[in-house]
Amino acid sequence: MSDEQDIFTDHYARIRRDPALRRRLIEDPVAGLKEHFGFMPDGDYRIEVIAQEPDTITIALPAPVDGDTSDEAIDAACRRVYDMLFTDGIGGYLVPDESLTWVLRDMRSSWAARNR
Amino acid sequence: MSQEKQTLERALTARAWHDPDFARLLESDPRSALAAMGVEVSDNVKIDIRMQRRDTLYFVIPPLAERREDAERVLNQMDMWQSGDLFCWIMPQALKLELLRMRQGYRGGGHE
Question: Matching SUPFAM superfamilies, A to Z (chain A) (predicted)?
Fold first, then answer.
């Protein structure tokens, strides 16, 4: 499957050219993803969309681990600051916790399998 | 920790984690929350705050293409694993000087 025709690349192209599709995805990410990929796996997880806009700076703060908000935890969380500066756009996921790693991988695997 | 040694990112995280009222303000009116820390944001710039949650995937999507043919170009893609342990800024490169001003504004005399 080439980059030009895979379902993920196609999704980004649609997000870039279709304002209504984009709006539906932002308002209801699970329904928006299901609309394109045809399936969303069950699981104990949420999805939010961070929409890049030409006039917007998004700040994604770190998340405490098990409610630990000590100075040491803040130091550890803020030791790594990542500046993601895009030109015409970038797509992908922030995955805050290791427990979500296979949620995303399984999601993509199931989408790819269904669209093969 | 003195303000000269504390970064904007650390100060913002500390206040958001320790002060529920500030955290609410940050989500509802980020411009005012940042102003309370001595950080001014230009009127034509919007701030989108995400207090990352460990149970949430954040799907970062590109902006609308200015021209239809631009939408067909293969997009740069990334995944940021364990982003909950990171402070992330996401913005157009055209706003990089705005971020520089925000950092300098905090360093130069906020109210922390």
Answer: Nitrile hydratase alpha chain
